[in-house]
Amino acid sequence: LFLGSMQSAEAKSLVRSIRKISPDIFNIEYTALRDLVPLASGNFGAVYGGYYKKNRVAVKQLLDVGDEQMHKYLQREIETLRNIHHPNIVEFLGVCEHHSGLYIVTEFISGGDLRKILKNSSIELTWDARILLATQICSAINHLHSEQIVHRDLKSHNILVTDDGVAKVCDFGFSRKLPRKKGPRTLSLCGTDQWMAPEILMDDPYNESADVFSFAMVLTELVTRQKPPERNASDMYAFNVDEFRRQCPRDTPRALVNIIIRCANLTPSKRPALRDVLSKLEALGSSSKTIELKRASLDAKQHGNTI
């Protein structure tokens, strides 16, 4: 796991900056991390799986301690994760400082990311399962917004799913705390093009409604199991509703399609708040389960059984 010298001026500056977040932020000893094996590479470092205090953990290692731009993103991720606790956001455990590098330690999610799951045609996803995942993701981002935080890089790659189907939003390097004052802000361009809101691509001021658009793109993925459709500058990067409708499976719940279209509105102020979207998704999930129960009851009666 050798990374490079932690004795450089840049590395020492990074450690000082992180320590300002909290004096006890470096709460994990390197020797307490066991059986580390490489898993993947993320935006800001390599990711390892291992164990800490008998618990399976994910360990993210910063790749370049000399990159000051990376310092900013790392600090944002640590600050966001340590202050946010939600069942659908990956749980932060702590930070480890070692001569080989800096490590962020979080809970380990064994099921992989949502993009990989959607690409795997052998994995069946019922509409109930998709609506439940959508509800969980919406709940996580709505919680961030209630804390004045925008994620700014919401996409299926940054949503992990446990083996029992629980969504966990991760990768907070682009997250940003917004001031209490409402309204769009002039912020830096960041994110991933196919999921990015039009106002960001157009380099216009934006706020948490940009996350709402990105959430709509994740919903299109849940519906079609494909990446969001490409958008064009000539159309101001607007979401093509007609094209999306053509891609939808015949049995797609109409209410889910309507949610996506509203969240993907070209005009940020016309997009709904995620708290309202969450209520609609919860209602949609409840109604779909009621339908399934009714069908099960009918099937049982037809076969002479009672429920």
From TrEMBL:
Q: Which SUPFAM superfamilies match?
A: Protein kinase-like (PK-like) (SSF56112)
Mind listing the UniProt keywords for this protein, alphabetically?
ATP-binding, Kinase, Nucleotide-binding, Serine/threonine-protein kinase, Transferase
| Gene Ontology MF annotations | ATP binding; protein serine/threonine kinase activity
Protein family membership: Belongs to the protein kinase superfamily. TKL Ser/Thr protein kinase family.
Q: Which residues form the Protein kinase domain?
A: 33-284
UniProt-recorded name of the protein = non-specific serine/threonine protein kinase
Query: Could you name the domain of life of the organism this protein comes from?
Result: Eukaryota
Q: What PANTHER family does UniProt report for this protein, alphabetically?
A: CENTER DIVIDER, ISOFORM A, LIM DOMAIN KINASE 1
Q: Where is the signal peptide?
A: none
In short, the EC number is 2.7.11.1
InterPro entries noted in UniProt = Actin_reg-Ser/Thr_kinase, Kinase-like_dom_sf, Prot_kinase_dom, Ser-Thr/Tyr_kinase_cat_dom, Ser/Thr_kinase_AS
Does rRNA processing count among this protein's keywords?
no
